[in-house]
Amino acid sequence: MSSKEIEQQPIRRLRSVVSYVQRGGRMTVGQERAWQRSWPSLGREISELPAGELDIAGWFGRGAPVQLEIGSGMGETTAALAAAEPEVNYLAVEVYPPGLAQLLLRAESLGVTNLRLLRGDAVVLLTEHLAPGSLAGVRVFFPDPWPKKRHHKRRLIQPEFVALLASRIAPGGRLHLATDWADYAEQMLDVCTAEPTLVNEYPDGWAPRPDWRPVTKFEARARAEGRQSRDLIFRRSQGASA
To answer: Domain for residue 173, yes or no?
Structure first.
């Protein structure tokens, strides 16, 4: 399937809350070349996955802890984090083809080999293709804030979705969220605190901003506009059953 066909392919919408926002845009020449080189081996469409559990170890060619990132955007953070954790099988989920192509370019430049890409709805991936307790951790950095109050119901971090995430994380694994919108940060804190299988690693609320998370241009812009980024790190409780 060509990148043009990928861009035109509809994404299944099974729920009122999904893990993406449809965006347009075409690939640059460099992105197109990276897509042609690497997508056939490193990328998959969630809508085209075989029924049942995704064979992650077979795809990576090894068994290793699995880190899932939802919403990799243009890949600036994702490529750097995957490069810093070569012992981890890193899965990135995104809907935007140019973003995935840019991530492939970044991964190539860093020599990253422990990264695989999935295009589509992470809710479908989690529900239909990932087993309970199969993930070492999940990261959701700067999801769409839907800033207008009437749109808050469209936000990704809702009780049902967090319960689903928690069920796929192994006991002791971590859920790491970040946002630069204050009211969304409060919502994230409330939702995750209410999930009985999760424990806040920083009981006072916010986690210190980790030095290992790169500052993207969007976070830098938020700082310039006076918005402070907030991190939340919750751990799947050891007593929780998968």
So the answer is: yes
Q: What are phi and psi of 166, to 5 degrees?
A: -60, -35
CATH number of the domain where residue 187 is located: 3.40.50.150
Burial label for 218, CB within 10 Å (0-12, 13-18, 19+), is middle
Q: Is residue 6 part of a domain?
A: no
4 domain-assigned: no
Q: How many folded domains does the chain comprise?
A: 1
Does residue 18 lie within any of the structural domains? no
What pTM was estimated for this model as a whole? 0.88
211 is an annotated ligand-binding site residue: no
Question: Which positions are annotated as active-site residues?
Answer: 144
Q: 232 is in which domain, residue-wise?
A: 33-236
Residue 5 counted as an annotated binding residue: no
| Sequence-distant (≥ 6) Cβ neighbours of residue 137 within 8 angstroms | 65, 67, 68, 169, 173, 174, 175, 176
Annotated binding residue at 216?
Answer: yes
Per-residue pLDDT tens, the chain, 242 aa: give them: 444 443 344 434 334 444 444 455 689 999 999 999 999 999 999 999 999 999 999 999 999 999 999 999 999 999 999 999 999 999 999 999 999 999 999 999 999 999 999 999 999 999 999 999 999 999 999 999 989 999 999 999 999 999 999 999 999 999 999 999 999 999 999 999 999 999 999 998 999 999 999 998 888 889 999 999 999 999 999 876 65
